Amino acid sequence: MAAYLVRRLLQMIPTLLGVVLFVFALFKFVGGDPAEILAGQNATAEQVDAIRQQLGLNEPWWTQLWIFVQQIATFEWGKSWATQEAVSHIFATRLPATLTVMTPILILDTLLAVPIALGVAYVRGSLTDRSLMVVTTVALSISFLVYVIVGQYVFGFQLGWFPVQGWSDSTWTNLTTYVPLPVLLAVAVGVSPQTRLYRSFFLDELGQDYVRTARAKGLGEGPVLFKHVLRNAMIPILTNVGLALPGIFVGSFLIEVFFSIPGLGREVLLAVNRSDYPVIQAVTVYLAFITMLINLIVDVCFKLVDPRVTLK
What we know:
By secondary structure, this protein is mostly helical. It folds into 2 domains: 2-74, no CATH class; 88-305, MetI-like (MetI-like fold), CATH 1.10.3720.10. It contains 15 helices and no strands. α1 runs antiparallel to α4 (61-74), α6 (127-141) packs across α9 (180-206) and α7 packs across α9 (180-206). The protein starts with a helix and ends in a 7-residue tail after the last helix.
Protein backbone atom coordinates (compact mmCIF):
# COMPACT_ATOMS: atom_id res chain seq x y z
CA MET A 1 0.00 0.00 0.00
CA ALA A 2 2.75 2.47 0.95
CA ALA A 3 4.69 1.75 -2.24
CA TYR A 4 1.51 2.24 -4.29
CA LEU A 5 0.79 5.60 -2.64
CA VAL A 6 4.33 6.84 -3.19
CA ARG A 7 4.25 5.76 -6.83
CA ARG A 8 0.90 7.45 -7.44
CA LEU A 9 2.04 10.66 -5.76
CA LEU A 10 5.16 10.71 -7.94
CA GLN A 11 3.01 10.14 -11.02
CA MET A 12 0.96 13.20 -10.09
CA ILE A 13 4.00 15.49 -10.50
CA PRO A 14 4.37 15.27 -14.32
CA THR A 15 0.59 15.42 -14.70
CA LEU A 16 0.44 18.59 -12.64
CA LEU A 17 3.35 20.06 -14.59
CA GLY A 18 1.47 19.37 -17.80
CA VAL A 19 -1.58 21.15 -16.42
CA VAL A 20 0.56 24.13 -15.39
CA LEU A 21 2.15 24.39 -18.85
CA PHE A 22 -1.22 24.09 -20.56
CA VAL A 23 -2.85 26.73 -18.35
CA PHE A 24 0.07 29.12 -18.79
CA ALA A 25 0.12 28.70 -22.58
CA LEU A 26 -3.66 29.05 -22.77
CA PHE A 27 -3.70 32.37 -20.95
CA LYS A 28 -0.42 33.67 -22.38
CA PHE A 29 -0.70 32.90 -26.08
CA VAL A 30 -4.40 32.29 -26.76
CA GLY A 31 -6.29 34.86 -24.68
CA GLY A 32 -6.34 38.59 -25.32
CA ASP A 33 -3.95 41.10 -23.83
CA PRO A 34 -4.89 41.47 -20.14
CA ALA A 35 -3.44 44.98 -20.03
CA GLU A 36 -5.76 46.15 -22.80
CA ILE A 37 -8.73 44.47 -21.12
CA LEU A 38 -8.00 46.07 -17.75
CA ALA A 39 -7.25 49.49 -19.24
CA GLY A 40 -10.50 49.68 -21.15
CA GLN A 41 -11.34 50.78 -24.67
CA ASN A 42 -10.50 54.45 -24.14
CA ALA A 43 -7.04 53.92 -22.67
CA THR A 44 -3.96 55.31 -24.38
CA ALA A 45 -0.97 53.25 -25.43
CA GLU A 46 1.04 54.70 -22.57
CA GLN A 47 -1.57 53.62 -20.04
CA VAL A 48 -1.64 50.09 -21.48
CA ASP A 49 2.16 49.88 -21.34
CA ALA A 50 2.14 51.09 -17.74
CA ILE A 51 -0.36 48.37 -16.75
CA ARG A 52 1.64 45.76 -18.64
CA GLN A 53 4.80 46.78 -16.80
CA GLN A 54 3.01 46.85 -13.44
CA LEU A 55 1.70 43.30 -13.93
CA GLY A 56 5.02 42.00 -15.21
CA LEU A 57 3.59 41.17 -18.63
CA ASN A 58 6.51 42.85 -20.38
CA GLU A 59 8.88 40.15 -19.12
CA PRO A 60 9.90 37.24 -21.42
CA TRP A 61 7.47 34.35 -21.40
CA TRP A 62 9.96 31.98 -19.75
CA THR A 63 10.40 34.46 -16.90
CA GLN A 64 6.62 34.69 -16.46
CA LEU A 65 6.39 30.88 -16.51
CA TRP A 66 9.05 30.57 -13.81
CA ILE A 67 7.22 33.13 -11.66
CA PHE A 68 3.99 31.17 -12.17
CA VAL A 69 5.66 27.90 -11.11
CA GLN A 70 7.13 29.62 -8.03
CA GLN A 71 3.69 30.91 -7.08
CA ILE A 72 2.26 27.40 -7.29
CA ALA A 73 5.11 25.86 -5.28
CA THR A 74 4.86 28.47 -2.51
CA PHE A 75 1.03 28.76 -2.58
CA GLU A 76 1.47 32.49 -3.14
CA TRP A 77 -0.68 33.11 -6.17
CA GLY A 78 -0.13 36.84 -6.27
CA LYS A 79 -2.93 39.37 -6.21
CA SER A 80 -6.16 39.77 -8.09
CA TRP A 81 -5.73 42.22 -10.94
CA ALA A 82 -9.20 43.64 -10.39
CA THR A 83 -9.37 43.99 -6.59
CA GLN A 84 -5.69 43.73 -5.52
CA GLU A 85 -6.75 41.11 -2.98
CA ALA A 86 -4.31 38.26 -2.44
CA VAL A 87 -5.51 35.15 -4.28
CA SER A 88 -4.57 33.01 -1.27
CA HIS A 89 -6.86 35.20 0.85
CA ILE A 90 -9.65 34.72 -1.69
CA PHE A 91 -9.32 30.94 -1.30
CA ALA A 92 -9.20 31.16 2.49
CA THR A 93 -12.28 33.38 2.79
CA ARG A 94 -14.50 32.00 0.00
CA LEU A 95 -13.87 28.27 0.31
CA PRO A 96 -15.59 27.83 3.73
CA ALA A 97 -18.85 29.23 2.35
CA THR A 98 -18.64 26.91 -0.66
CA LEU A 99 -18.00 23.85 1.51
CA THR A 100 -20.86 24.82 3.85
CA VAL A 101 -23.29 24.58 0.95
CA MET A 102 -21.82 21.90 -1.29
CA THR A 103 -20.90 19.28 1.35
CA PRO A 104 -24.51 18.72 2.56
CA ILE A 105 -25.65 18.51 -1.07
CA LEU A 106 -23.22 15.72 -1.93
CA ILE A 107 -23.91 13.82 1.31
CA LEU A 108 -27.70 14.02 0.96
CA ASP A 109 -27.58 13.14 -2.74
CA THR A 110 -25.68 9.95 -1.96
CA LEU A 111 -27.56 8.98 1.19
CA LEU A 112 -30.94 9.40 -0.51
CA ALA A 113 -30.12 8.01 -3.94
CA VAL A 114 -28.50 4.75 -2.76
CA PRO A 115 -31.42 3.32 -0.71
CA ILE A 116 -34.03 4.59 -3.18
CA ALA A 117 -32.16 3.03 -6.10
CA LEU A 118 -31.68 -0.23 -4.22
CA GLY A 119 -35.37 -0.36 -3.38
CA VAL A 120 -36.65 0.29 -6.90
CA ALA A 121 -34.07 -2.13 -8.36
CA TYR A 122 -35.42 -4.84 -6.06
CA VAL A 123 -39.01 -4.23 -7.27
CA ARG A 124 -38.00 -3.78 -10.89
CA GLY A 125 -40.95 -3.54 -13.27
CA SER A 126 -43.47 -2.79 -10.52
CA LEU A 127 -45.70 0.27 -10.38
CA THR A 128 -43.38 1.84 -7.83
CA ASP A 129 -40.38 1.37 -10.10
CA ARG A 130 -42.14 2.74 -13.17
CA SER A 131 -43.61 5.70 -11.29
CA LEU A 132 -40.27 6.66 -9.79
CA MET A 133 -38.53 6.44 -13.15
CA VAL A 134 -41.16 8.76 -14.64
CA VAL A 135 -40.70 11.23 -11.78
CA THR A 136 -36.90 11.21 -12.13
CA THR A 137 -37.16 11.66 -15.90
CA VAL A 138 -39.41 14.69 -15.46
CA ALA A 139 -37.09 16.11 -12.81
CA LEU A 140 -34.13 15.72 -15.15
CA SER A 141 -35.99 17.51 -17.93
CA ILE A 142 -36.38 20.73 -15.96
CA SER A 143 -33.55 23.23 -15.76
CA PHE A 144 -32.04 23.89 -12.35
CA LEU A 145 -32.68 27.59 -12.94
CA VAL A 146 -36.41 26.85 -12.94
CA TYR A 147 -36.06 25.07 -9.59
CA VAL A 148 -34.24 28.10 -8.18
CA ILE A 149 -36.79 30.65 -9.39
CA VAL A 150 -39.84 28.60 -8.35
CA GLY A 151 -38.25 27.56 -5.05
CA GLN A 152 -37.38 31.13 -4.09
CA TYR A 153 -40.85 32.33 -5.00
CA VAL A 154 -42.77 29.56 -3.19
CA PHE A 155 -40.61 28.87 -0.14
CA GLY A 156 -39.16 32.34 0.24
CA PHE A 157 -41.74 34.91 -0.84
CA GLN A 158 -45.03 33.04 -0.51
CA LEU A 159 -44.51 30.73 2.48
CA GLY A 160 -41.69 32.68 4.10
CA TRP A 161 -39.99 29.50 5.34
CA PHE A 162 -36.49 30.47 4.24
CA PRO A 163 -34.67 33.70 3.41
CA VAL A 164 -34.08 34.04 -0.31
CA GLN A 165 -30.60 35.52 0.03
CA GLY A 166 -28.07 36.28 2.71
CA TRP A 167 -25.02 35.03 4.57
CA SER A 168 -23.40 35.55 7.96
CA ASP A 169 -20.12 34.95 9.77
CA SER A 170 -21.64 32.16 11.88
CA THR A 171 -21.44 28.66 10.39
CA TRP A 172 -24.35 27.46 12.54
CA THR A 173 -26.54 30.37 11.41
CA ASN A 174 -25.68 29.68 7.80
CA LEU A 175 -26.47 25.96 8.14
CA THR A 176 -29.81 26.55 9.85
CA THR A 177 -30.97 29.69 8.05
CA TYR A 178 -29.38 30.32 4.65
CA VAL A 179 -28.25 26.86 3.51
CA PRO A 180 -31.48 24.77 3.74
CA LEU A 181 -33.23 26.28 0.71
CA PRO A 182 -30.35 25.98 -1.81
CA VAL A 183 -29.53 22.51 -0.48
CA LEU A 184 -33.18 21.45 -0.77
CA LEU A 185 -33.40 22.62 -4.39
CA ALA A 186 -30.01 21.17 -5.36
CA VAL A 187 -30.86 17.78 -3.84
CA ALA A 188 -34.26 17.78 -5.56
CA VAL A 189 -32.40 18.08 -8.87
CA GLY A 190 -29.32 15.98 -8.12
CA VAL A 191 -30.96 12.93 -6.57
CA SER A 192 -32.80 12.06 -9.81
CA PRO A 193 -29.80 11.27 -12.04
CA GLN A 194 -28.03 9.58 -9.14
CA THR A 195 -31.03 7.34 -8.49
CA ARG A 196 -31.26 6.27 -12.12
CA LEU A 197 -27.53 5.60 -12.31
CA TYR A 198 -27.33 3.65 -9.05
CA ARG A 199 -30.43 1.67 -10.01
CA SER A 200 -28.59 0.41 -13.09
CA PHE A 201 -25.64 -0.61 -10.91
CA PHE A 202 -27.89 -2.59 -8.57
CA LEU A 203 -29.77 -4.21 -11.44
CA ASP A 204 -26.48 -5.48 -12.87
CA GLU A 205 -25.60 -7.04 -9.54
CA LEU A 206 -29.06 -8.54 -8.97
CA GLY A 207 -28.69 -10.44 -12.22
CA GLN A 208 -25.42 -12.08 -11.21
CA ASP A 209 -25.08 -15.80 -10.41
CA TYR A 210 -23.95 -15.19 -6.83
CA VAL A 211 -27.34 -13.62 -6.02
CA ARG A 212 -29.23 -16.69 -7.26
CA THR A 213 -26.83 -18.93 -5.37
CA ALA A 214 -27.30 -16.99 -2.15
CA ARG A 215 -31.08 -17.19 -2.47
CA ALA A 216 -30.92 -20.90 -3.32
CA LYS A 217 -28.98 -21.47 -0.09
CA GLY A 218 -31.84 -19.88 1.84
CA LEU A 219 -30.21 -16.51 2.57
CA GLY A 220 -32.79 -13.81 3.36
CA GLU A 221 -33.43 -10.87 1.06
CA GLY A 222 -31.98 -8.41 3.57
CA PRO A 223 -28.50 -10.00 3.68
CA VAL A 224 -28.60 -10.54 -0.09
CA LEU A 225 -29.31 -6.89 -0.77
CA PHE A 226 -27.18 -5.19 1.87
CA LYS A 227 -24.34 -7.66 2.39
CA HIS A 228 -23.79 -8.77 -1.20
CA VAL A 229 -25.52 -6.57 -3.79
CA LEU A 230 -24.81 -3.24 -2.10
CA ARG A 231 -21.21 -4.12 -1.34
CA ASN A 232 -20.46 -5.29 -4.87
CA ALA A 233 -22.07 -2.18 -6.35
CA MET A 234 -20.00 0.15 -4.17
CA ILE A 235 -17.08 0.37 -6.60
CA PRO A 236 -19.03 2.13 -9.39
CA ILE A 237 -20.87 4.17 -6.75
CA LEU A 238 -17.57 5.30 -5.22
CA THR A 239 -16.32 6.16 -8.70
CA ASN A 240 -19.35 8.36 -9.31
CA VAL A 241 -19.01 10.03 -5.91
CA GLY A 242 -15.30 10.60 -6.63
CA LEU A 243 -16.20 12.36 -9.87
CA ALA A 244 -18.57 14.66 -7.98
CA LEU A 245 -16.24 15.40 -5.06
CA PRO A 246 -14.10 18.07 -6.79
CA GLY A 247 -17.28 20.04 -7.36
CA ILE A 248 -17.72 20.73 -3.65
CA PHE A 249 -14.38 22.59 -3.67
CA VAL A 250 -15.31 25.02 -6.45
CA GLY A 251 -19.00 25.45 -5.72
CA SER A 252 -21.99 26.05 -7.96
CA PHE A 253 -22.19 29.27 -9.94
CA LEU A 254 -26.00 29.29 -10.02
CA ILE A 255 -26.46 28.56 -6.32
CA GLU A 256 -23.91 31.09 -5.11
CA VAL A 257 -25.04 33.85 -7.47
CA PHE A 258 -28.81 33.50 -7.00
CA PHE A 259 -28.59 33.03 -3.23
CA SER A 260 -25.82 35.65 -2.72
CA ILE A 261 -23.44 33.16 -1.12
CA PRO A 262 -19.88 34.54 -0.98
CA GLY A 263 -18.30 31.30 -2.16
CA LEU A 264 -15.56 30.34 -4.55
CA GLY A 265 -17.96 29.61 -7.39
CA ARG A 266 -19.27 33.17 -7.46
CA GLU A 267 -15.70 34.49 -7.19
CA VAL A 268 -14.66 32.44 -10.23
CA LEU A 269 -17.60 33.81 -12.22
CA LEU A 270 -16.63 37.36 -11.27
CA ALA A 271 -13.02 36.66 -12.21
CA VAL A 272 -14.08 35.40 -15.65
CA ASN A 273 -16.22 38.49 -16.24
CA ARG A 274 -13.33 40.75 -15.17
CA SER A 275 -10.64 38.73 -17.03
CA ASP A 276 -8.89 38.35 -13.69
CA TYR A 277 -6.26 35.88 -14.89
CA PRO A 278 -4.43 35.21 -11.58
CA VAL A 279 -7.65 34.03 -9.93
CA ILE A 280 -8.69 31.88 -12.90
CA GLN A 281 -5.24 30.32 -13.22
CA ALA A 282 -5.04 29.56 -9.52
CA VAL A 283 -8.49 27.94 -9.45
CA THR A 284 -7.68 25.83 -12.53
CA VAL A 285 -4.44 24.43 -11.10
CA TYR A 286 -6.01 24.02 -7.66
CA LEU A 287 -8.94 22.05 -9.12
CA ALA A 288 -6.58 19.83 -11.12
CA PHE A 289 -4.60 18.98 -7.98
CA ILE A 290 -7.77 18.33 -5.96
CA THR A 291 -9.11 16.04 -8.70
CA MET A 292 -5.91 13.97 -8.83
CA LEU A 293 -5.82 13.67 -5.05
CA ILE A 294 -9.46 12.58 -4.87
CA ASN A 295 -8.87 9.98 -7.59
CA LEU A 296 -6.07 8.54 -5.47
CA ILE A 297 -8.30 8.42 -2.38
CA VAL A 298 -11.09 6.71 -4.35
CA ASP A 299 -8.66 4.08 -5.65
CA VAL A 300 -7.58 3.32 -2.08
CA CYS A 301 -11.23 3.08 -1.03
CA PHE A 302 -11.74 0.40 -3.70
CA LYS A 303 -9.36 -1.81 -1.76
CA LEU A 304 -11.24 -1.17 1.49
CA VAL A 305 -14.61 -1.97 -0.06
CA ASP A 306 -13.51 -5.02 -2.04
CA PRO A 307 -10.48 -6.98 -0.75
CA ARG A 308 -10.18 -8.64 -4.16
CA VAL A 309 -8.97 -5.36 -5.68
CA THR A 310 -5.21 -5.30 -6.11
CA LEU A 311 -3.33 -2.02 -6.04
CA LYS A 312 -0.49 -2.16 -8.54
